[in-house]
Amino acid sequence: MAYVAVSGGKEAIEESIRLLDFYRSGEEEDIAVEAIESQLSLLVDRVMGEAGLYARSYAALALRQCEGSVEEAVFLLRAYRSTLTRNYYTKTVSSEDMRIVRRISAAFKDISGGQILGASYDYTHRLINFDGALLEAQIPKLLPPEICIAEILEEVQPTESILMAVQELKEAGYHFAVDDYTGQSHLTPFLPFADIVKVDVLALPQKDLADLTQTLRKYRTVLLAEKVEDRQMAHFCHTLGFSLFQGFFFSRPELIHGRKVPVSHAVRMHIISLCLKEDVDFGSLSNAVRHDPIISTRLLKFVNSAYLGLPKKVNTIDHALRMLGSMTFLQWLCVNVLAALGSKHSSRDMAFLASQRAKFLESLAKCLQIRRKLPADMSTHIFFLAGLFSLLESLMGMPLAVILEGVPIDEDVIAALTGGETRYTPWLRLMDLYEHGDWDACIPVSQSLGLSETDLVAAYAEAVTWSAEIFAFTS
User: Fold this and answer.
1) Which end of the chain is more exposed for a tag (fewer CB within 10 A), N or C?
2) In 10 A of CB 71, how many CB atoms?
3) What are the structural domains, with CATH classification, of the chain?
């Protein structure tokens, strides 16, 4: 650290200190450091920030010694910081050694090496409802055509002005979907513009549904089956040429009783059971993960990703466990084991939804924990597991009691997940209501749990972001 030369030597410095004491002397008592720390907190924060040291009491003391001069207080705190032992050093990294996983330029389309999206759901299309008035006013243009599919509602009438607006939007690069189509004549003029036609499969007998899909073939549009309620309907729609599906079948289990858990699934449920023990044995856990090549590969891919930004490459499972920490690893592992349980594409979608539910419930529980309103015997981790296991029956097609046999989890959680009434039941009900957008029923349930609408919105946003980030490393 540099020093300042003072003419006059030691005597000048001593006289300077005596002069300072003279200016400070008076009848009033000195301001207490605690008062500065509590009443001038923003000033204390500024001194700590500019000095690069988090020490509130020392920052307040420096302000008092410097009579409120921020610059002098920062100088003093920096001087103190220079005397401390440096525990960590940041190594200089060459830009050539950096692995770029996401590079987006808002200012330039053509940058050297091109745009790199990385692991992201930011650029997937969203189906957004528009009524006639919104289409006529060309409101979809407020959104980029790359992410917006304008959904024409079933009550929209094909007036000349609306059809002209749709044509202009189509020429501008926007995509369209026709909603709840069952052959209505007033929606037919929109079909030539449609990229997707959503067919209400519950509203039609199977013969009429087959005839309707045959009619729609000439429009060369993607067919989306709405309200698919069971496996038979899903299979029937697939044979008719539907390629997109929506419905409660994909979140409702179809159980096959008497079926045993496959060996590969049993191994992964064993990994989950090791995660859930009160005293986690990381040696046994590491050994179990090491014998599962899929989970091992995903773990090393995740821990070496830019998401964590570790300075050195991690090559072993044991090292990965130590770098992640217990809670982050346990949550990541549970989600990935769940994602690996199913082999079908729909299984991955259900696992993604389950992880979203898990984080949603955990975030809501944390809201109450911060306010000290969460019962002491209800941990936020249990809420994470409740959401995570809520689709386990759908994923594996077996009763939950069979799947979770030997897994150490609260009996109240299992009872709530299988339809029983426990203290976790309102939380699961709130989760379902929020997912389906039933706001009238959702708000009273959230209020009864001590949660506000703001809590719900924030928790859901966090859950969506977290799930997208975690699932970027599950394939």
Assistant:
1) N
2) 9
3) 9-81 (no CATH), 126-250 (3.20.20.450), 263-471 (1.10.3210.10)
